[in-house]
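Blinded run. Sample ID left blank on purpose so nobody reads anything into the name before looking at the predicted structure. Input follows.
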Amino acid sequence: MNRTLAAGCVLSVGGLVAYLVGVTNPYPGRAYSVTAIMIGVSLLAVGLGEP
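Blinded prediction complete.
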């Protein structure tokens, strides 16, 4: 598994968990969870496209 794919997985899952926690219990900075999901999905796409 390459590092780009692993980073994409970590950011996507972490962002999703942070988003779900933010929906149930608002906290400062919760908007960054959506950013983490977007970056994670982008890294997943790049990681899957590498040979």
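Unblinding after everyone has recorded impressions. The mean pLDDT is 92.
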